[in-house]
Design brief:
The structure holds three protein chains of three kinds. Chain B is built from seven helices and nine strands; from the N terminus they run βββαββαααβαβαββα. Chain B is an alpha/beta fold. The two termini of chain C are about 15 Å apart. Classes of the chains: A alpha+beta, B alpha/beta, C alpha/beta. Chain C: This is ATP-binding cassette domain-containing protein.
Amino acid sequence: MIITWLSGLVRRRSGRLLAAALGISLAVALVAALGSFLTASKSTMTDRAVRSVAVGWQVQVQPGAKPASVLHTVRSAPGTRTALPVGFAHSTGFHARTGGSTQSTGPGVVLGLPPGYRSAFPGEIRQLTGSASGVLIAQQTAANLHVAPGDTITIGRPGGGPAHVKVAGVVDLPQADSLFQKVGAPPQSQPTAPPDNVILLPAAQFTRATAPIKAADPAAVTTQIHVARDARLPADPAAAYTAVTGAAHNTEARTAGGGLVGDNLGAALDSARQDALYAQILFLFLGVPGAVLAALLTATVAGAGADRRRREQALLRTRGLGFRQVVGLAVTESAAVGVVGGLLGIGIAAGVGRAAFGTASFGSTGASAAGWFALALLLGLVIAAAAVLVPAVRDLRQGTVAEARRVVGRAGTPRWMKFYPDLILLAVSYFVFRASSSNNYSLVLAPEGVPTISVSYWAFLGPALLWLGSALLLWRLVTLALAHGRRPLARLVRPLTGAMAGTTAASLSRQRRPLARAVVLLALALSFAVSTAAFNSTYRQQAEVDARLTNGADVTVTQSPGSRTGPSAANPLAAIPGVRHVEPLQHRFAYVGADLQDLYGVRPSTVTSATSLQNAYFSGGSAKSLMSKLATRPDSLLVSEETVKDFQLAPGDTLKLRLQDAHTKSFHTVPFHYAGVVKEFPTAPRDSFFVANAGYIAKTTGSDAVGTFLVDTGGGNQKAVAARLRHQLGTSAKVTDITQTRSQVGSSLTSVDLSGLTRIELAFAVLLAAGAGGIVLALGLAERRRTFAIATVLGATRRQLRGLVFSEAATLTAAGLAGGALIGWALTQMLVKVLTGVFDPPPEAVAVPWPYLALTLAAALAAIVGAALSGVRRSARPAVEELREL
Amino acid sequence: MKAPDTGLLVDTLIDCRDAARTYGRGENAVVAVHGATFQVRTGDRIAIMGPSGSGKSTLLHLMAGLERPTSGKIGWPALGRPATAHDIGVVFQSPSLIPALDVVENAALPLVLSGTAEPEARRRALSALDAVGVADLADKLPEELSGGQAQRVAVARVLALRPKVVLADEPTGQLDRATGRHVMDVLLDTAAELGAALVVTTHDPTVGERLTERWPMHEGRLATTAPAPAASTPRAAPRARPNAAQGETS
Amino acid sequence: MTTTSTAAARADGATALDARELYRFFRTGEEETLALRGVSLHVQRGETVAVVGPSGSGKSTLLACLAGLDEPAGGYVHVGGERISHRPEAQRARLRARRIGVLLQSGNLIAHLDVRENIRIAQAAAGRRDVSDIAALLDGVGLSGRAHALPHELAGGELARAGLAVALANDPDVLLADEPTGELDGRTEQRVLGLLGSRADAGRGVLVVTHNTEVVSFADRVLVLRDGRIQP
């Protein structure tokens, strides 16, 4: 019986089955594609986090423990690739005599590096100048002491006389924060900044040089064991974090208190798992509405056959089929639709993956992709059951066949409208949004070092309820407008229908139920496209801002420390093809109190011609107003919020910085006026720094030396221009371009290839918008084919039919577009607010991708017009069978 | 065949010459109407009688211009243009009202389609509804009507158009006897009031009895009877079935 | 008209259908309409009974109650000696499948199945698998050549006969027909009535609800239903 039924359906109702299957396939494909993508992104995040760490673990040998035995234990721990002991000792200060003057620093740190350290941990030390082996000195120390390779430095030793070493090279310690961490201390008692003065000695020399210190105080010289790990980690950052911290604790236990593990790897994964959670949230936010929409579309398609299905079921029951048998038939139908749609969807997903990522599994492992695909397939079956089976069973629950056979009566007001769920939902949405976006809110809470992470899922409620509430409100409004606005409607459709306007309006008004449903579906599809696209392009915009902030400009030329290059060096650079503008940016250091901070000297009038300054970087004025303040009052100073707090500054206050004089090399006091707060600045570090007028700095320090040249290439061609600059400058300066930075910025979500997600999302949004417009209209027209056939035999011309059909299409389009744009706009605003944590820095304004929206609109319009035209064509010449039925 | 047109009192409304209609092609081709030749004139009251599947509906559709003959010719000499829906009113077997329009809008629809202004169309539709006795249903929707009421609205729709020919396809097929009789009354009165020709297809001899001429149709072949002059034909013809028909129906 | 309806006849299994004191009312808002007000009737095996009455007299409701499609508020319906009213829907369905054939005025066929498949579904409902019957059924209604036609490909008369074939697919004890000749011309009408008659001749009960006088004259017994009551 089931086979007979199904084969009949497949042979004679293939169109409708296929339409439902297509709707399901969209939902399935979306979930499968996004899920696989999510898994792939998570494993990318783990990879990046692991790669970002120069030294996996720093095992601090505890006082009293034997370094050699701890080293042995660590080396034999599973997952250890290399483990090398590093000596740490404190110096009372370094001194150097160059160019006739003597420079001294405060207390410093001396490190002892074993042979092979730099090749085992290549990320820890970056060579700037000089030799790679021998005595190395940190860049800032070199700057403080005015030393270069070949110069001699005196190391002050507590409990012994000074030691003299000859500098072989200058290096940078990119991960100084973790290198000089206080192992085992909680985050709040970590040093606020790494030591400024660092000398790295070869192990043998270190042992000799620190022997007197050790003799005086054995605890003053310590050993850390630096570990590179090669254990296989789970692809998910959260799981990888758990695995790594577990291994760290295990190792600590093995050393029996002899060593404390500073888990840099764990710390990196800790922040990665937070990003992974954000990625998951994005997936939920952006993927779920699409899947819901596809499911709604499916339900609409399936619902179009509801009357027929009800009649058939009644007939089957009349023939004596029991409840279970009729349900069996419905199950067959929904399973067929679900399986076909599901497989089709997985095919689409695999195809999309191949097109967007070159692999059907989106770059994730085969197993996790298969898992997602299976889940998506299951979802397809659930949607099919909900769209086909549930209504069938609902009809069947009517006690008797006679009751089930009765056709639903005249369209009144839908019952839900009486309870105002739309307004309630919107109100709740607003309050949830208000509550969740208040000051102390953070979407993702991942306390450092704690394995549990939490997402404030409450925050989802705001946008979700907004979506639902505004859809229902639109439904109500359209229904009301169609019910009571017959006259205005007639006026609106008059250009399309001519003399038939009143009749057309009456007919539209009576079809308000299906029409309102169609409008809501179209609006939801469009709002999905709008919010997704706007969110994605805002995200991209912020990623670009982030990259620009880090790199400074399209291409950035960073001079070696201590270089005396002046602004005139910009001229030869500006002559290089592809360069539009070169902006010099001074980079100095300044003391405020005992605190050393970066100081950037800008030319306020021209700085924005090479880089962009967003208002969000500053407070106390817009970017433009603060720059003009710097220009009109050259001694103005922009400081960090922290400094404002520390020094209790009020606008106009004088702030005295100590800057180094070019001739005397000594620091002398220069007065500035506090003019505003700067939070971010191109090339500046994340912590505290100053921004001042470059001319004023040059005047007061006697040097116009430029630290960085910001090169504008007009937004393109960065790689080629960077290559040309490198060619011209050789090794005298470092050249970076923004494309390089873009791929390096942090381990944050920005680094995840969101463009893949974007492409998937946007493609589906277009399909859904076109589907919602076209299919729904086509179904509506098909339902009324008889109406059009009657109108035709009553003498309607093709033109009049076109008027009828296009009035409906126009009503659908106008209301759907207006509703979709409004809902989309509101949703985007809320999404961007709720997902603030995703953006770094927070966006100044939502970016609207007009070309994409235009494309979506065009697709939806094309589908609607296509459906309308085919509707007209079909009804202008009714089939013989339709005439027969009259 | 009819006598040549005298040209004064009686117009030839439909002129059908050897018109045939075939569905499908090749082996599967079904001939619905074999070459039919006849004329319909002002004042005619014709019943096309035949069992289901005899091609009555197709013939009616040809007469209404809804379908085109596959061979032969059909013309509307007195109606100007060919296939004018506004000069030929058709009452279908099922009431065929548009569900989204109320009764008066349905009745006014053909007028609106022919370009009559909506208020005027509405006025005429209301008076037509009144004439067939369903004016009180003007605001109802088709789904709220009984079969007989809906069929009367369909008749009113034709009446409002004031056509020169009224074609009715099994107008009583789905109605019980009493309601069917009433619908036939309305049709005959309407045709009389309009001075229009009335052609009804039916399988029901009691319906056929109420018309002047009964043309039997069987398996797509139409037999026309020799007409009596239209003016002198009594309204209620004696029960005299054409020979061909008698053999078929009993 | 015969009135051989005695208790004795019922007891010896000669009764195909027996309904006693059926009540059914509908509620629309505040109003309550009594569609059936104590209808009693029975159909003997080998007998054709016609129920006539004006529209709105409760004919369709009566038929639905007799077929177990609707549940009477009061009274009982027995089919072939088994009670079909006041039982769970599953049991009613089983009885319908085994003992009752229903011929509706229209819409007897599933649109996406051809004639043969429609019959097969009805047989499957009754738990029959013997496909050979289909040919005999189709032959019986004169549709041997149309087994693979879809409902919309059939002419009016053919459609009615195909519906009859489906209604008889389970070889029912009693055939309930609602206006079986409503849209048919005289010749097809005669043919359908002939088929109904042969059903009764084969020892089954036939009950026809109609306003058609031809049908009335062909029935063994005529009951007049008016305002929900059988007229004396």
